[in-house]
Amino acid sequence: MMWVAKPQAIAYKACRQVVNLSYDAMIANLRLMNFRCFDAMSVDFPASGAVIVGANAQGKTSILEAVCVLVRLHSPRSLRMGKMIQIDSPGFGIAGECWQSDRQVRFSARQGVEMKVDDEVVGKQGDYLAGGGLVVWMGNDDLDLVRGSGRVRRRYLDFLGCQLDPVYRDHFNRYQRVLKARNLLLKDRVLREPEIAAYTDLLIRHGSFLTKARRELVGLLLPEVVHSQLEVSGNDERVGLEYVAGAGDDMVKSLEMTHERERRLGQTVAGPHRDEVRLTVNGMAAADFASEGQQRTLALSLKLAQGALLEKQAGRMPVYLLDDIFGELDADRRNALMQALPDGAQKLITTTNIDWMQDELDVIEVSSLK
Ligand SMILES: Nc1ncnc2c1ncn2[C@@H]1O[C@H](COP(=O)(O)OP(=O)(O)OP(=O)(O)O)[C@@H](O)[C@H]1O
User: Fold this and answer.
1) N or C: which end of the chain has fewer CB within 10 A?
2) Residues that bind ATP, according to the entry (predicted)?
3) Nearest CA owner, ligand 1 atom 31
């Protein structure tokens, strides 16, 4: 079976709006080798973005996923890179021209990731990401942001924090590693207290940074979420966001207090890995009391707020990757969402149907040749 994405975009509307903005977050093209369902594929993206349309299982999500991996070395649907390798292949390759520079990510199951920018191998993930772009991913499981566990909201904050600040990314990565190592020691029947104490110091150092940074992020996000909710819902639903630290105000004290429990349970019970973001609509817990429509709108608002904050704080426009999120929204909310996306941003949108769409974006059809 041979897969193609037809790069010749079909003009969706005859008159295209001329927007006089700089598309500094631009992905001009994408080339894939042995990635998910694609043997080999190449597609050009217009500066303002495109609607990627096709029937189910044609590879639309895989295209957006590849863009996210190329730009952020992160897949929103898989924590393990190996899952993205086309079945029976030794590895995958993604390449593309982004921000007028050629970028490549190769992943081989045996040798791991090789990253290149303009044909130069980049040694560190941080260096590769520093020259890259910013991404907002909106997918149909975003409802989990409101209904799901705290882990989903922590991932939301971390995806934002890591994009905004390399220091955040560094503390975040180190915290995860220290937590894992400390938990292994706590699980051990023969407790090695001096080693645990050494990890405790590191846990406090990186954890305290994360607590402070996440609290600040939530404070910055709140006005953006309120604004986006108003834009998408069209009414004055009062939304609230509150950061609740999983280690309280004082991590040292929390770890002292949980000393016995940790040893009994064999794991670290206080720290940013237990952080929560409380979401409310009209003063009530959004997961328990908001209607499904309100919950969906809040989830969208959280993602739009992420984009607005990236733009303000980083001074650059993120690329918006919208994966099939329109199915559950009525036509008014779909078009309100399209309007709420910033004019100057590149938007890549997957959908199975474009009949409702009023926006003037080019269309790329994805289909498999059988
Ligand atoms: N590692 C892999 N190797 C080969 N094929 C894969 C791999 N991972 C996923 N696929 C297949 O790729 C196809 C395309 O999946 P994808 O989710 O990109 O489609 P889609 O067009 O977004 O579909 P939908 O509209 O249903 O969401 C599916 O048939 C899926 O089973």
Assistant:
1) C
2) 54-61
3) 57
